[in-house]
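Issue 218. Parser rejects a valid record. Input:
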Amino acid sequence: MRQRNEHTIAHHCQVEGRGYWSGQHVCVRLFPASIGTGIRMVRTDLAEKPLLKVGVGARQDQQLRTTLACGTARFAMVEHLLAALYALEIDNCIVEVNAEELPGLDGSAAAYVDALRSAGLVIQAAPKSQLIVDRTIRIGTAASWLEVSPSPDGYAHFEYQLDYGPDSPIKPQSHRARMSAETFCHDIASARTFVTAEQVAELSKAGVAGHVTGKDLLVFDEQGPVGNLLRYKNECARHKLLDLVGDLALVGCDLVGRFVSHRGGHSLNATVAKKLLAVANTAIESNTRRAA
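Output the parser choked on:
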């Protein structure tokens, strides 16, 4: 992967929609930012307008989604936006949201990609940091794991292996990709969030996601998608790969390596992101000591 400079967007853009969990209408507005800003998120609906610097240290555990926190202010369902920003190589951006939960949209990252591409890209006069994987690390169990290993060609390779067993209405499938903006936009961004009809019933009983239907995302029963059609035969695996990219984007630098997930989810992704960041920080400290 080439060493590149940092980027921001040329003009502000926005995406609007309804939160899956809350049902609340929310507007996400994205603005250009200066070198070294990173991705920062602001809750404009709160009086103090808390400002969060996106990173794995800000992550909070929450079911079925990635949530970041700044004090008591939370930013939920951020993974699709972060995946789009990472894949499009947008490093510096201010994200304003007027609710806790980002919009679910159609369950994919396509609307974010469309908005960001329409905003244009500006090359900035600072090199973007890279994390080059130089060893193999596997974290998880025999049933669910994520393995990180050196890249075969200097690029980032992602693979997701999905297998929920013979009783699941979602059949075993996988997807792999050498990551680039083009690959993400054409093959991954439009893959949608999915759940089973049983999960929807459980969530509704718990008082959340009661408005979600098969038109908002992919809902599977024994016959397949309910009231919807697949965009890809392996759309579920592609979406899990999208989530993986968004969660590992929390490391905050370009990743060069091979990332293979077998039945992993947000929590496992976050554990690996923390491990990668720790390895990177150790290398920086070691290099600093040698230079001193």
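Fixed in the parser; the record now loads. Helices lie at 79-87, 110-119, 181-188, 197-205, 235-248, 266-291.
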